[in-house]
Amino acid sequence: MTRLSQAALTALPEGIAAPRYDRSTVTKGVVHFGPGAFHRAHQAAAFDTLLAHDPRWGLTGISLNSRGVADALNPQDGLYTLALLDLETSYRVIGSIGRVLTRDDPEAILTALAHHDTRVISSTVTEKGYCLNADGALDLANPAIATDLEAARADDWTPVSFTGWLVRGFQVRRHAGLPGVTVLCCDNLTDNGRKLEAAALALAGEIDPDTARWIADNVAFPNAMVDSITPATDPALRTRVAHETGLEDAWPIQRERFTQWVIEDRFAGERPALDVAGVTFASDVRPFETAKLRLLNGAHSSLAYIGLGMGLETVADAMADSTLAAFVERLMRVDIAPSVTPPPGLDLDGYISDVLARFRNPAIRHLLSQIAWDGSQKLPYRLLDTVRDALAAGRSVERLALPIAAWLRFLVRAANEGRTITDPLGPMLLARAGDWRSVLALREVFGDLGSEPRFAHAVAAGLASLEAGQRAPAGV
Ligand code: CS2
Fold first, then answer.
1. What pLDDT is stored for residue 155 in this prediction?
2. Which of 78, 383, 399, 440 could cross-link 97 (Cys pair, CB 3.0–4.6 Å)?
């Protein structure tokens, strides 16, 4: 079978959408760190739409942790297939990524960061990729950051961390007299732009105060809310795409049809006209972030840990369990919604119904085990901030504590079965799993919440009801 490539585009069957612009005219206005599934399903698709209107917003991808995406896409001239899975499935070949660089190309990475065409540097490096501590500040003791601090003693240093690459790129731009850029964080973190700004300034302040000043004066870090359910690529998708397109694609991507991107209108230079792709620019993104992170991602993590404990595999399976589905709906409407101030025009009840309908999408096979990754990084803003608000308001936290109890049992199962977990704090969590109070004492995850008696009591009750085989706290 012919491999997907620029030349093979002409062989695409009717009905498979191809890039609607001449890729040879595209210039690279965006450098993106972490060109994984979510980036390619969400931001790269939006830029692909924009390129039909403005050829200056092509993407250069940078993978710091593996060669997988580079080895899959570069032989395909950066092309890949996006499957939109819903009642109707459609396929689209995305052309916005020109090439993907890896850690093996440090010079090329620096050239891209310091190129005069580069106006935006964006990132999806997952929560842990920002090396932040429990307070959301740069963790200078983080091994990658400590390595960068050491390496930066030399003028011509090569970073290992994402934030290190930002600072290195800004050093070169400053020395070359190039203008500032916009840094667009596209990960699920509250105040993601501000957190990344503070992290870059903190690191630059340690390494090169002149560049820190330059960043403060010339670089913008807008907040952004990103949303589209994007299950990992599986063999079934590869087979389907080959069948539908007649072309072999080494790494196609799948997502639901729904997609949302809200970006704070705060740019260092020219703002890409992404509104042609349905992107919303807003003066304040925080209400959008809070609603999405607490209601959608909070519910996702709850389904993941409770569902895995019941031996379920996917989100759709979990939603097909009427007791669990009713519990999660009640959690969203009664316990989470009161802590959310909706953005103007958003009806929270309707939003919750839409999210639940997206979870029930039969065309999406979204593994609970994928959502269960990195609990120590995700739970603080997905559920623990909501717990804090509920405690401060004198509301019950009994239901909110159940997914936390389910996470604790998820750790116990992994420890008992001698399995590792995908979590930067994995070894420490598994070592403590046998004593849940010692997990609650981890400030990296729970901050001061672990010593809050009402919370600890609710977690104990949650553990008891799960141990009794209940899927919702007794009588709740
Ligand atoms: C999921 C998210 O894996 C997870 O943790 O909750 O990836 C979720 O699917 C997206 O944030 C939806 O926009």
1. 82
2. 78
Query: 122: which strand partners?
Result: 32, 184
Strands (E), 71-166: 80-85, 90-94, 97-102, 120-123
Task: Give the integer Cα–Cα distance in Å for 321 and 327.
Answer: 10
Which helix or strand (DSSP H or E) is residue 370 part of? helix 368-371
Q: Each residue of 398-422: b (16+ CB within 10 Å) or e?
A: bbbbbbbbbbbbbbbebbeeeeebe
**CA distances (Å), 434 to each of 299, 421, 439, in order?**
26, 15, 9
pLDDT tens digits for 342-365? 999 999 999 999 999 999 999 999
**Residue 40: count of CB within 10 angstroms of its CB:** 29
pLDDT at 476: 47
pLDDT of residue 58: 98
Ligand 1 contacts CB of residue 304 (under 6 A): no
> Would you give the DSSP letter of residue 138?
B
- Put residue 447 in one of left, alpha, beta given phi > 0 → left and psi -120 to 50 → alpha: left
* Gap between the Cα atoms of 70 and 66, Å rounded: 8
Residue type, 100: V
- Whether residue 255 has its Cβ less than 6 Å from ligand 1: no
CB 183 within 8 A of CB 220: yes
The rounded Å distance from CA 417 to ligand 1 centre is 26
Q: How confident is the model at residue 470 (pLDDT cuts 50, 70, 90)?
A: low
Average pLDDT value for residue range 318-335:
98
85 alpha carbon – ligand 1 mean position (Å): 16
